[in-house]
Specification:
Blueprint (H helix, E strand, L loop, with lengths): L1 E8 L8 H16 L3 E8 L12 E9 L2 H8 L3 H7 L9 E6 L32
């Protein structure tokens, strides 16, 4: 499984319409990608009582697909339309990260993601060691 993270940095005066992002933009992506998009998550950065962001990101989303090929073949044909919609909710340039999902749901007490063996010998630290 892969995760495509789209991260929107915060900056003074940033424009980001969270409502539009949640109710229009991500549903557009879901409709265009169809079954290739297993699910998505949206994160909204916290702000203080005056609306000043508390973190370095105003928002992010995570698109989860079975493979990079599934993502590229379902998103690619609609990339231009999806990118054109960005101006409707923000004026900030996003950062993109594509990652392999190693653990999808730690609440299930999974020690290995299905089909992905964990290399327990690559780290010089054991999980019970505290690094100081």
């Amino acid at each position: 499984m892969i995760k495509v993270s789209v991260i929107y940095p915060s900056k003074p005066g940033v424009r980001f319409d969270h409502d539009y992002y949640r109710t229009k933009h991500l549903p557009l992506i879901k409709r265009r990608m169809g079954a290739a998009l297993k699910y998505y998550a949206i994160d909204r950065g916290f702000a203080d009582k005056d609306g000043k962001p508390l973190g370095v990101y105003v928002a992010m989303c995570h698109l989860l697909c079975e493979s990079l090929d599934a993502y590229q073949s379902s998103f690619g044909p609609h990339a231009q339309e999806i990118r054109a919609d960005v101006a409707n909710f923000t004026d900030v340039v996003s950062i993109h990260q594509i990652s392999e999902v190693v653990v999808e749901n730690s609440a299930k007490d999974e020690t290995e993601a299905p089909g992905i063996p964990i290399d327990r010998g690559s780290s010089p630290y054991r999980s019970d060691q505290v690094i100081r």
